[in-house]
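Milestone 3.1: sequence recovery, worked example.
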């Protein structure tokens, strides 16, 4: 009898625990997530579109299938097809697959009955790598502050940006190539329809992202398709106005598609679609085989983002964006050349030709120390700072909305002893540490916050990165940045009680106001507008 009693009691306890798991009914059916130890509820691996496989490879995402019964969404979906390009990307997914169109939702425990603000976040990785399951994008921290967080998977590389004349011809929109951006758009449309079921307010959506994710935010702002799907935008290091990684015409990308089809001996689309995903990825990853670019396709992007923003046709939303203090090391410009004044001037003249004297005035290099400082700035500006600045400048001039500009300057602490044999690389990657001979005895790079190093800080996920020996100062900088971000997501204004004032910038300001985010925050007028205007002349000249 006693044994029977305990058996029944155990059954009731187990049943109660399982019954407590959160359930939500969306358009496609009922789903069941999990409750984290913090009380935050997580829904992982929600399909927002049909798997883009078979005949759906290289097609606009299609609405997800409906299901009967209760679908468990307690595990992340597959990562998009990609190579392991960056060593710091740690996915919690079961693996890579073409079947990758899943999103994840974190909500406060009390989110069921409240109209909460929403953050939809796009990962970085150069449109060739990344996944919404990464720890550094985890939404638990913001969810504890009353925000619903959504991370989105989108197709990458040749699966997400392959254009071909036959694809354009078969498309009802007479367009091809921007499938990764269309995946993001489809996810935003899904959020608009379904986020209220999670307790979110579909009219209070902020989109955000870092690097390629930030470029994605600016692309979604450029597209007429996404208008009305979000109210605010956050960009961390990157936009479509990039000197090297910006947009390309549909015709040019179609030519690349034809060349690739020839390379793999595929005479038509059917043959291309029958190539196994792993083999397609391998062939596209061969040197010179395929270059991922965002495409002016006449549909998602009816014309260039520059034309769209200059005409004031972009989404007129408040924008918070910025960059890190040291986006790229000086060696990204000087290469293996020693940073001497002579070598620096030679490299500048080789790259900028008749404009070299202007560059040397804006980025002077009369001493080794000055060369390192200027080459760092020049590499960073060319890589991603200028394009982010350009986005902010166009938005504040032509949208009627304010922009909030920041630089993040808190350098990461040293790595833990277990990671002494690795070093961080450009774009936040981790690689084996170079030997002294490899570096040819070059001086050390400038200290500062490198590209992608701000993600864990500003999204509140330092604890999930066990590579670095985080200190109290790191957590202080993280909390400060989060408070500004959270205020912006909730109200459209990052300012709040006990925070240094972050001045907005509007069309009437002669220069932009920039807040430096570190252990403390301090605002000042921008110092290097002349540099950006010079690069702007080079950029405009290429368009």
């Amino acid at each position: 009898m006693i044994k029977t009693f305990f058996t029944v009691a155990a059954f009731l306890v187990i049943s109660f625990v399982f019954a407590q798991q959160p359930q939500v009914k969306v358009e496609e059916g009922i789903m069941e997530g999990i409750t984290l130890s913090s009380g935050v509820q997580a829904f992982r691996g929600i399909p927002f579109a049909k798997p883009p496989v078979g005949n759906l490879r290289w097609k606009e995402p299609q609405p997800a299938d409906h299901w009967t019964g209760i679908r468990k969404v307690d595990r992340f979906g597959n990562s998009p097809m990609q190579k392991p390009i960056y060593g710091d990307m740690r996915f919690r997914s079961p693996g890579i697959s073409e079947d990758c169109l899943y999103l994840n939702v974190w909500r406060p425990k009390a989110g069921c009955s409240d109209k909460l603000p929403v953050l939809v976040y796009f990962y970085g990785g150069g449109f060739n790598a990344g996944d919404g399951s990464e720890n550094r994008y985890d939404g638990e921290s913001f969810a504890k502050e009353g925000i619903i967080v959504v991370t989105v998977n989108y197709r990458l590389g040749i699966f997400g940006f392959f254009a071909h004349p036959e694809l354009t011809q078969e498309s009802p929109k007479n367009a091809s190539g921007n499938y990764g951006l269309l995946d993001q758009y489809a996810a935003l449309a899904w959020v608009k329809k379904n986020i209220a079921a999670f307790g979110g307010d579909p009219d209070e959506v902020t989109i955000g992202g870092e690097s390629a994710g930030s470029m994605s935010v600016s692309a979604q702002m450029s597209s007429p398709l996404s208008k009305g799907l979000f109210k605010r935008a956050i960009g961390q290091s990157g936009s479509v106005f990039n000197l090297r990684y910006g947009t390309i015409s549909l015709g040019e990308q179609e030519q690349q598609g034809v060349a690739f089809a020839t390379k793999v001996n595929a005479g038509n689309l059917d043959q291309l679609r029958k190539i196994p995903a792993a083999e397609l990825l391998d062939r596209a990853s061969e040197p010179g085989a395929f270059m991922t670019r965002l495409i002016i396709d006449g549909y998602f992007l009816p014309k260039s983002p520059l034309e769209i923003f200059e005409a004031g046709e972009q989404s007129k939303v408040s924008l918070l964006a910025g960059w890190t203090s040291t986006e790229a090391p000086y060696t990204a410009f000087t290469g293996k050349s020693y940073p001497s004044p002579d070598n620096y001037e030679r490299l500048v003249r080789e790259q900028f030709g008749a404009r070299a004297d202007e560059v040397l005035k804006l980025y002077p290099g009369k001493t080794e120390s000055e060369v390192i400082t200027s080459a760092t700035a020049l590499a960073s500006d060319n890589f991603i700072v200028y394009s982010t600045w350009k986005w902010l400048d166009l938005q504040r001039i032509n949208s009627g909305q304010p922009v909030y500009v920041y630089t993040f300057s808190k350098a990461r602490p040293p790595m833990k002893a277990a990671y002494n044999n690795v070093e961080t690389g450009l774009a936040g990657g981790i690689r084996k540490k170079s030997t002294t001979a490899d570096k040819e005895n070059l001086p050390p790079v400038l200290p500062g916050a490198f590209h992608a190093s701000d993600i864990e800080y500003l999204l509140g996920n330092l604890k999930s990165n066990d590579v670095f020996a985080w200190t109290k100062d790191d957590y202080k900088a993280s909390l400060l940045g989060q408070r500004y971000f959270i205020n912006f997501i909730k109200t459209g204004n990052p300012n709040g009680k006990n925070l240094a004032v972050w001045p907005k910038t509007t069309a009437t300001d002669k220069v932009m106001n920039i807040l430096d985010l570190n252990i403390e925050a301090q605002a000042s007028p921008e110092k290097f507008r002349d540099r950006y205007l010079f690069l702007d002349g080079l950029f405009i000249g290429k368009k």
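Residues 11-19, 425-438 have pLDDT under 50 and may be disordered. The CA atoms of residues 119 and 367 lie 46 Å apart.
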